[in-house]
Amino acid sequence: MSTFAEYAISALLLVGGAFTLIGAIGLARLPDFYTRLHGPTKATTVGVGAIVVSSVIYFSTLGRGIGVEEILITAFLFMTAPVSANFLAKAAMHLEVKTTENTRGQTWDQ
Amino acid sequence: MLDRLSFPQPWLSLTLFVTWQFLSDGLSGGSVVLGLILAWGIPQMTRGFWPDRPAVLRGWRAPAYALRVLWDIIVASVEVAKLILSPRKPRPMFICYPLELDHPLAISILVSTISLTPGTVGADVSDDNKLILIHSLDAEDEQEIIDTIRARYEKPLLEMFR
Amino acid sequence: MILIALYITIAMVTLAALLNVYRVIKGPDAPDRVLALDTLYVNAIALIVLLGITLQTRMYLESALLIAVMGFVGTVAMAKYLKRGSVIE
């Protein structure tokens, strides 16, 4: 395996892990449900995406072909993350979950 | 009866067939047969859920939009990461965004895009498809966010779904 | 070098999973718990992919794909249940 590929794989792994961790930190420390929604939908999705891409590069430099499963996982994650965030936001609005005191604007429920 | 044998969503059928071939470790007789059954069966079973109007899509504009969104996703996650790690409090805001799009598929693409890009999660679409409710993590000015979304995402989608 | 990066990444993802478990326990509302469980699913996918790289096998990727599908369906079902009070009407 070339040195460049090794560097690329390691960097992608570390970036992915860092984003996953930041997403989880956001989930743990942000003040209310709607702000917590942001961490997992963006940071975690990108983090896992980076880890999966590093896996694609790793196995293709080992000469085992391009991993179709990995690409399917990434595509699926990027398609489903906003949909589940949307569903959860609707559920939270229906349950009238508390927002932090400095939130401006109104929710609606229909 | 003939209706039951047709492929109501040819693109969906093609996608299902190709995905199945990838999933089942290469082409073989069995995977082709099962892929064809799935490509016929799933659109037939889900036909009730598809909107009647077919999408008039200018497909050649889609790759540019996808690349722009992909880049924005990376920028977005860096911004959210910075905000999560900084000690300052976020300034959340709910924003009503008046839609110009009216195609259901286009609206769902727009809401998904908003959820993945800087500081905003698309929360809900009003029943008459005229408004979407956006939650912004760190908003200064309501109008600025609306203008950004309109120029950056809604205009290209309007071009695509004419 | 890849191995060191791999171990650091596994540690970070595990820590992330622990933080998610904290949010599952603490709540305070049902949507928070569902959101944390959804994130836990995504972290499990990351851990499975990392395990596959460590053991140099691609056998586990199919289970990661299954977890992705099941996690999405589970989250949507839970959200629908919270909103409507039933999953299939």
Automatic annotation (TrEMBL), chain C:
Domain of life: Bacteria
Species classification: Bacteria, Pseudomonadati, Pseudomonadota, Gammaproteobacteria, Pseudomonadales
Sequence similarity: Belongs to the CPA3 antiporters (TC 2.A.63) subunit F family.
The organism of origin for this protein: Marinobacter manganoxydans MnI7-9
Main localization category: membrane
Subcellular location: Cell membrane
Membrane topology field: Multi-pass membrane protein
GO molecular function, one term: sodium:proton antiporter activity
Membrane-spanning segments: 6-22, 34-53, 59-82
PANTHER family the UniProt entry points to: NA(+)/H(+) ANTIPORTER SUBUNIT F1 (PTHR34702), NA(+)_H(+) ANTIPORTER SUBUNIT F (PTHR34702:SF1)
Keywords of this entry: Antiport, Cell membrane, Ion transport, Membrane, Transmembrane, Transmembrane helix, Transport
Entry protein name: Multiple resistance and pH regulation protein F
Pfam family, one: MrpF_PhaF
GO cellular component: plasma membrane
